[in-house]
Amino acid sequence: VQLQASGGGFVQSGDSLTLSCAASGFSVNNFAIGWFRQAPGKEREGVSCLNSDGDTDYSESVEGRFTISRDGAKNTVYLHLNSLKPEDTAVYYCARGAYVSAACRPYDYWGQGTQVTVSS
């Protein structure tokens, strides 16, 4: 099982980015995939989750600005980041739900992270 997060970059406030979480060794259609972020000096926080039923969940801080989606054919889950703010600056990670079910937690495998930096 592997998760490869990519798509981060350096952008201006108000810009958009799309992060990708490419999975191998399992189908993203059968497991929940979550996105997390960790800013310097802060604890890791959950950002969004897409479960195997297609239900989505977002943290308050990104609700209405970020969208999670899935492409089963590419075995990839995306996080679309819109209206970015400097406080969105962090390393973003994706992770797989531990069970073949709709549960968004706990998580068992993690990707390596991709840096998102938002300048004001």
Task: Describe this structure as you would to a colleague.
With 120 residues, the protein is mostly beta strands. The N and C termini lie far apart (38 Å). The relative contact order is 0.32. The mean pLDDT is 96.
Shape: globular
Beta fraction? over 45%
Average pLDDT figure: 96
Q: Please give the radius of gyration in angstroms.
A: 13 Å
Q: Helix count?
A: 0
Task: State the low-pLDDT regions, or none.
Answer: none
Cα-to-Cα separation, first versus last residue? 38 Å
Number of strands: 11
Q: SS-based structural class?
A: mainly beta
User: For the report, how would you describe the main beta sheet?
Assistant: 7 strands, mixed
Sequence of secondary-structure elements? EEEEEEEEEEE
Helix fraction by DSSP (H/I, runs of at least 4): under 10%
Topology:
Layout: E1 2-6, E2 9-12, E3 17-24, E4 33-38, E5 45-50, E6 56-58, E7 66-71, E8 76-81, E9 90-97, E10 107-110, E11 114-119
